[in-house]
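Sequence in, structure out. Go.
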Amino acid sequence: MNDLDPLMRSWPFEAGSIQVRTIQGKDGRLKLQLRLDLGILQMEMSGRPDGQNPFGCESLLEHYEKLAARFENEGKKDTFKLNAEDCLKLQQEGIQYYHRYLAFFQLQNFEAVIQDTRRNLRLFDFVTRHTENPEMATMFQQFRPYVLMILTRARGMLALQNKDYALALKHVERGIRDIRAFLQEHFPPELQDQSAELHFLESWMEEIREQRPLTPREKLHQQMLDAIEMEDYERAARLRDALKELY
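Output:
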């Protein structure tokens, strides 16, 4: 009666791909499902992915944030610390959000990806500020370049859906800058150059630039270069004058 094999056989696992779907739960609300090699993860579309409300809060992070704020209001800011057990619980919760933003990305729900990745970045910073063990901060922050890359991709894809290539490039440039700043602060130069996240975003930026439609000025400039190459200097001069009028 509790055997999950029939359910998993109805949705076979495919190695090398992220398999995601939405289903309607018995409560009438949409649920998000992610197929893994050993089973299926089912997540809520909003709030904490497992649907729980620890200590009456939307998430464990929110609970600890309220505790920290209470300590600060009472003038005890420096006495609020996260111990190893607190950090491990927060890490487990962060993994739930990680699975969900991967699923949302696959469904091209980029607004939800942005929300969940920003939430995990907030988690990293909160632990860094309040942990009593610096190694715990490193345990979280090591994933910062990856989460920044996913956030950047989501922002860029939203812009591209609206054909706003300039905004997409702006988001990618910001992502590259943020990742590079983090790497420069925490890693030596030889390791910074090995960042897969930077390599991906830099490659994607070039791809967007190549796909971006030319502006009127860029079209005139290209026509002028073509005219020079064809040794049609009279036409090249006219195009040069037209370019000057666009400034």
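Check: The longest helix spans residues 84-106. Residues 214-247 form one domain.
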